[in-house]
Design brief:
It is built from nine helices and twelve strands. By secondary structure, the protein is an alpha+beta fold. Among the domains are: about 50 residues, no CATH class; about 60 residues, RNA polymerase II/Efflux pump adaptor protein, barrel-sandwich hybrid domain (OB fold (Dihydrolipoamide Acetyltransferase, E2P), Beta Barrel), CATH 2.40.50.100; about 130 residues, Helix Hairpins (Orthogonal Bundle), CATH 1.10.287. A four-stranded antiparallel beta sheet has the order 2-9-7-4, with no helix packed on it. Strands 6-5-3-8 form a four-stranded antiparallel beta sheet. Strands 1-10 form a two-stranded antiparallel ribbon. The two termini are about 95 Å apart. Keywords: Coiled coil. This is Membrane fusion protein, multidrug efflux system.
């Protein structure tokens, strides 16, 4: 039994041993050969590689033993792996919804501040790079000439008012004169009627022989005089009425003069206000060139002004613009202030 087992399991090694001995020796002494066969499996040269089938059968039980021995650790590892994969997906999905760029710059409008009137500068209460509010004084110009011009304009307005009042008084007087002339016309008409009656009566008496020719001629003359008196009264009435039209035309002219004087006064007031140069909106004074004693020409720049309203112009790739809409929130970082975060919104794309 022993020999058969050895031959079956170590066939190649036994063949090698047998090749080292001759056949007669085997026949003469069978015992030593049996000993060689018994020692052959222990030799290093007789080792053979294990079959892959046998190795795989040994590993499978080992793996099944690890999972069965530590199920909690395996479950925790699987849970951590699933959490990592899910978190990675959410992070990638989150960051893809944001668009960023470092190709951006801050922009703002700037313009020159200049006076609308000329004169010597008397006050400059600001300095370079000073922040001012709306209505703060930037510079003052000597206003004495402009105050004098305003006083003259106000005097012209007063004179125009006085002229209108004078014409109104003349109109009142003229209306009274018209009324008097109308009364004279009425009186002349009444006298003319009586003179006509007297003339007709004495003419009839003269024709019938009951009156004298002298009386007839006298009352006829009185009739003609009353007719002339009526015509004169009527002409005087018309003249007074036309005088009213003339006074009304003069009044209209005086009203126009008043409007002109008022416009000149308003212009004088504006010119006086222009002697104070102020900021129209909050901002910062830069490149200040005004100085006390300097003669400022109308329209000449005194300083540059930068309003507080600023914005950021950012350049993005075309494929990024599809994700942007007006009003979307924006987070800004400035290299000069890395610790500060500025919030804003998209104004236009």
């Amino acid at each position: 039994m022993f020999d058969e087992d050895v031959l079956e399991q170590r066939g190649p090694a036994l063949k090698h041993v047998e090749s080292l001995q001759s056949a007669p020796a085997l026949q003469r002494d069978p015992t030593p050969a049996r000993n060689e066969q018994a020692r052959a499996p222990a030799g290093p040269a007789d080792k053979q590689p294990e079959s892959p089938t046998g190795s795989g059968e040994e590993l499978k039980p080992s793996r099944r033993g690890l999972l069965s021995r530590r199920p909690v650790v395996s479950a925790i590892g699987a849970l951590l792996l699933a959490s990592a994969l899910g978190g990675g997906y959410l992070y990638v999905d989150h960051i893809t919804s944001f668009q960023s760029t470092d190709d951006a710059f801050i922009a703002a409008r700037q313009f020159a501040l200049a006076p609308k009137v000329s004169g010597y500068i008397t006050t400059v209460p600001v300095t370079d790079n000073q922040h001012v509010k709306a209505g703060d004084v930037i510079a003052r110009i000597d206003d004495r000439d402009y105050r004098t011009a305003l006083a003259q304009a106000e005097a012209q307005v007063a004179a125009a008012h006085a002229s209108i009042e004078n014409i109104d008084a003349q109109l009142d007087v003229q209306q009274a004169q018209i009324a008097a002339n109308q009364a004279q016309v009425d009186q002349a008409q009444a006298a003319l009627v009586f003179a006509g009656q007297q003339a007709a009566r004495y003419e009839h008496l003269g024709q019938t022989g009951y009156g004298t020719v002298q009386n007839e001629q006298q009352y006829t003359s009185q009739l003609h005089q009353q007719q002339a008196a009526l015509a004169s009264a009527q002409a005087t009435l018309k003249l007074a009425q036309r005088q009213v039209d003339s006074l009304k035309a003069q009044r209209n002219s005086s009203v126009a003069s008043l409007a002109q004087a008022q416009a000149q006064r308003e212009q004088a007031e504006l010119n006086l206000s222009y002697t104070t140069v102020t900021a129209a909106q909050p901002g910062r004074v830069v490149n200040l060139g005004a100085a006390v004693g300097q003669f400022a020409q109308a329209g000449t720049s005194l300083t540059m002004f930068v309003p507080d309203e600023i914005w950021v112009t950012a350049n993005f790739k075309e494929i990024q613009l599809d994700q942007m809409r007006r009003g979307d929130p924006v987070t800004l970082k400035i290299d000069a202030y890395p610790e500060r975060t500025i919030r804003g919104h998209v104004d236009s794309v």
